[in-house]
């Protein structure tokens, strides 16, 4: 896009020029939306597949005057409103927090540096970029030199040098250096926008709940439509149109687990709200599930186990006077623009209190995680390199090597300052002289040990993946109590195949490059593990993209926050257990409560198929005759039980868990219905059949709910008792003709009680049998996979 207005590159745009460009649609507003609008929330809740069917069935019942059977719409509409209101509430809370932590960028306008939101950038804005920034628009570099990672655009993870005149593209991120650049393309015209899916390389959603819900929708849809048509045709040959529509509607409504989908979405939304109250921003709804399923937690030492503050504890001169080192380092630190914890510590030690004059820098090679050193050419002094010993020099004597070993074993990070006699390059200089060692100490978080202990005691394997020296990392891991701290390995120089091979053999990894972090995560996931990754630097982004759930610190780089699923707004590692516990609560409770809805679905399918196969009967129930079951022993208790605490690790597949819980209940209730057919056939009281089936299924479902509430505590006991009492009061209080219930005698009452008792006993046995079956299948599958 051409520069359509003249601008002063030194002063940036004027306010008038900004207004002109904004008016012409030349602002950096992307078509990509990060959250649902209010319209999308309402439309999404209203017009789901099952909701449309419910509206059509309600219309059909109204058309034939079966108004008393519209009572299911009361529950349906109530659920619909709850879902919409909860999503709107979550959106308001999350949006409010997100505004505070929106990505901002520094631009030059009217000759002054100002900080604006990325979507306020306009064409020709003069933007200042530094390490950790994500490039927000296509730009041309006007001044400075940087290295960028374009992996989100090209898949290539190696840093690329960019200098004056070079193009940098929106979506890439700065890994070292600083520069001033002019925005040449913004919004939908940027290179990343034209790449669509390839641009951000978004991996497919790994949510098992989402996959299971989609399978259920498709499966039930395939079964429901033909069964509904067959039921209509079969009933129409035996009854009038009004009765046919009523019976068909009852069958279809019974087969739809509408509340299960609402329960899932509401539970996840409530989880988002609860995490927001704990100062945790969820950027992907279903990542709550992935975090709950995580059985491996990978940590980057700095900023996670340590609090992000560093101090230079010791300066050890080598072949150089201490005063001269202070002079060199003051000039060195002043010349570099990289902002990281190490540079901050060096600046506090050498620059802030330095009173002398500084040497002018002729050239600067900023630090990057890839090469692990920086370099500065100082006028009259020469070229100096500063970084990890093994990446800077091979010329250390034995005493210095032993000193470094002792320091790293004590948990210090050691840097070496060398003077090079060769030209400055991004590779180690062979002809250099070590002139000083710096011992830098990370401050361990006071809550790190307790937090690590929580994870290790709750079925989560803790691994530390760091770019630091392995001895330094191991020492810190020992202090915080990470298992396997003494069985550690450095990945320096290891081939990719070896890195992936040892990923599951060690817990502590040192000298890890950003690409190797990614390989480690990939290998762990390939072995069947669910991996959560925490970090705060640009060197963590590749691993974030590969992990099941990524958690960024708010104090980290904006590129890291942008790539993460969850942002910890208070930068507190100690809040991680709360986040995981919330995820486990949501997923475990969804799994349990959803089975109540699916039990009704399977039961109705079995009953419908039985009626169609028998050819002698019509579907017995009307829509309002499953109201008590659906309300008191499915809907209300499911939502209440979904709120209870649950910190048990999430085990097994979601669909297997659902099926193993729902099928036994559906089978025993169906057998109870068959018992009702037999009883009515023997006693020649066919008119009582709908009443008996409704009562038997309703109170049989109560025993299933009781089993789900075990072991009883104050909360679960209260839920069960209140539902039973509410159902009995409702049954005694309502006029029976509204639900077409017939009066039953003491004989029928005894039959119902015996049936319910048998249902309860058989359910316990079948549930145990199904659990054994699924566990056995899991073992067989695991053996075959190995």
Report on the architecture of this protein:
There is one protein chain. This protein has 786 residues and is α/β, with parallel strands linked by helices. It has four domains: 15-30 and 102-200, Calcium-transporting ATPase, cytoplasmic transduction domain A (Distorted Sandwich); 40-88 and 205-274 and 580-776, Up-down Bundle (Calcium-transporting ATPase, transmembrane domain); 280-305 and 445-569, Rossmann fold (3-Layer(aba) Sandwich), CATH 3.40.50.1000; 306-444, 3-Layer(aba) Sandwich (Calcium-transporting ATPase, cytoplasmic domain N). Helices cover 52% and strands 16% of the residues. It has 27 helices and 21 strands. The strands form three sheets. An eight-stranded mixed sheet has the order 8-21-20-19-9-16-18-17, sandwiched between helices. Strand 19, helix 20 and strand 20 form a beta-alpha-beta unit. The longest helix is centred in the C-terminal third of the chain and has 40 residues, at 746-785. It is elongated and about 110 Å long.
């Amino acid at each position: 896009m051409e520069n359509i207005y003249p601008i002063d590159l030194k002063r940036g745009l004027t306010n008038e020029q900004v207004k002109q460009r904004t008016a012409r649609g030349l602002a950096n507003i992307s078509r990509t939306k990060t959250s649902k609008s209010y319209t999308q929330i309402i439309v999404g809740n209203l017009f789901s597949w099952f909701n449309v069917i419910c509206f059509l069935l309600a219309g059909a019942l109204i058309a034939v005057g079966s108004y008393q059977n519209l009572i299911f719409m009361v529950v349906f509409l109530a659920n619909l409103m709850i879902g919409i209101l909860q999503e709107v509430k979550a959106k308001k809370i999350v949006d409010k927090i997100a505004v505070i932590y929106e990505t901002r960028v520094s631009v030059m306008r009217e000759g002054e540096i100002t900080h604006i939101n990325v979507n306020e950038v306009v064409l020709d804005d003069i933007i200042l970029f530094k390490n950790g920034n994500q490039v927000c628009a296509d730009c041309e570099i006007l001044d400075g030199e940087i290295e960028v990672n374009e992996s989100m655009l090209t898949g290539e993870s190696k840093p690329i040098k960019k200098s004056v005149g070079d193009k940098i593209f929106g979506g890439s991120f700065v890994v070292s250096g600083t520069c001033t650049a002019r925005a040449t393309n913004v919004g939908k015209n940027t290179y990343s926008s034209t790449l669509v899916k390839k641009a951000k390389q978004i991996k497919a959603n790994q949510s098992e709940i989402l996959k299971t819900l989609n399978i259920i929708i498709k499966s039930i849809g395939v079964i429901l439509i033909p069964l509904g048509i067959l039921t209509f045709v079969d009933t129409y040959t035996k009854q009038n149109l009004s009765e046919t529509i009523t019976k068909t509607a009852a069958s279809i409504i019974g087969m739809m687990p509408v509340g299960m989908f609402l329960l899932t979405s509401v539970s996840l939304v409530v989880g988002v709200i609860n995490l927001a109250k704990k100062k945790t921003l969820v950027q992907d709804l279903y990542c709550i599930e992935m975090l709950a399923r995580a059985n491996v937690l990978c940590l980057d030492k700095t900023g996670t186990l340590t609090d992000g503050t560093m101090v230079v504890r010791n300066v050890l001169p080598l072949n150089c006077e201490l005063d001269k080192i202070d002079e060199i380092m003051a000039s060195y630190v002043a010349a570099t623009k990289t902002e990281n914890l190490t540079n901050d510590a060096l600046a506090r030690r050498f620059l802030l209190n330095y009173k002398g004059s500084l040497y002018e820098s002729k050239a600067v090679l900023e630090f990057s995680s890839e090469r692990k050193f920086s370099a500065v050419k100082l006028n009259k002094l020469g070229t100096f390199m500063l970084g990890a010993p093994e990446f800077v020099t091979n010329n250390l004597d034995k005493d210095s090597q032993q000193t470094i070993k002792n320091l790293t074993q004590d948990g210090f990070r050691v840097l070496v300052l060398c003077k090079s006699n060769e030209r400055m390059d991004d590779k180690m200089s062979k002809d250099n002289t070590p002139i000083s060692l710096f011992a830098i100490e990370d401050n361990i978080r006071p809550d790190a040990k307790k937090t690590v202990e929580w994870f290790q005691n709750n079925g989560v394997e803790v691994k530390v993946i760091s770019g630091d020296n392995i001895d330094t990392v191991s020492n810190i891991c020992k202090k915080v109590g990470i298992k396997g701290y003494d069985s550690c390995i450095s990945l320096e120089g290891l081939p990719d195949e070896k890195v992936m091979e040892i990923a599951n053999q060690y817990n502590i990894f040192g000298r890890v490059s950003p690409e190797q972090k990614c390989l480690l995560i990939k290998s762990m996931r390939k072995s069947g593990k669910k991996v959560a990754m925490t970090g705060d630097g640009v060197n963590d982004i590749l691993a974030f993209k590969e992990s099941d759930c990524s958690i960024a610190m708010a104090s980290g780089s904006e590129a890291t926050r942008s790539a993460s699923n969850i942002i910890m707004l208070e930068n507190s590692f100690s809040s991680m257990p709360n986040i995981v516990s919330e995820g486990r609560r949501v997923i475990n409770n969804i799994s349990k409560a959803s089975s109540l809805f699916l039990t009704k679905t399977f039961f109705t399918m079995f009953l419908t198929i039985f009626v169609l196969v028998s050819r002698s009967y019509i579907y017995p129930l009307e829509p309002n005759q499953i109201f008590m079951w659906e309300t008191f022993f499915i809907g209300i208790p499911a939502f209440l039980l979904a709120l209870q605490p649950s910190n048990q690790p999430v085990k097994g597949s979601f669909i297997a868990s659902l099926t193993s819980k729902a099928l036994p209940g559906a089978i025993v209730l169906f057998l109870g219905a068959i018992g009702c057919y037999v009883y009515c056939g023997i006693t020649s009281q066919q008119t009582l059949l709908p009443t008996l089936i409704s009562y038997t299924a309703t109170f049989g479902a109560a025993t299933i709910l009781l089993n789900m509430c075990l072991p009883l505590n104050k909360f679960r006991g209260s839920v069960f008792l209140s539902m039973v009492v509410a159902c009995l009061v409702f049954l005694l209080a309502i006029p029976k003709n509204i639900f077409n219930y017939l009066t039953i005698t003491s004989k029928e009452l005894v039959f119902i009680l015996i049936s319910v008792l048998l249902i309860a006993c058989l359910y316990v046995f079948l549930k145990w049998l199904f659990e054994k079956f699924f566990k056995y299948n899991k073992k067989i599958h695991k053996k075959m996979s190995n």
